[in-house]
Design brief:
Layout: H1 12-24, E1 34-35, H2 37-46, H3 51-63, E2 67-69, E3 75-78
Length: 88
């Protein structure tokens, strides 16, 4: 019998804050752009988050005004640079 394990990023706010943390630690390119794969890959492969958790967390972070996503979906930008979004 296989038991389900606790998903640390099932909580939207926790996952969204992790995305902001990942984005804050990535070297932005032109005009503050952060390529989406620079936060997607670590979230899914290193932190073992799922695709649905990533999508929901990204949407949550955008709704809260923490991240902005380009209409192409290719990159995001950090918003509110003066506010510490990582502190609870």
């Amino acid at each position: 019998m296989k038991h389900a394990t606790e998903r640390p990023y099932a909580d939207l706010e926790t996952a969204a804050r992790k995305l902001v943390e990942l984005a804050a630690n990535v070297q932005a390119v032109q005009d503050g752009r952060i390529y989406i794969e620079r936060i997607n890959a670590p979230f899914m492969f290193e932190l073992k988050g799922s695709g649905s958790e990533f999508g929901a967390a990204l949407k949550y972070a955008i709704e809260r005004g923490w991240l902005w996503k380009h209409e192409s979906g290719a990159y995001v930008k950090l918003l509110r640079p003066g506010e510490n979004l990582l502190a609870r």
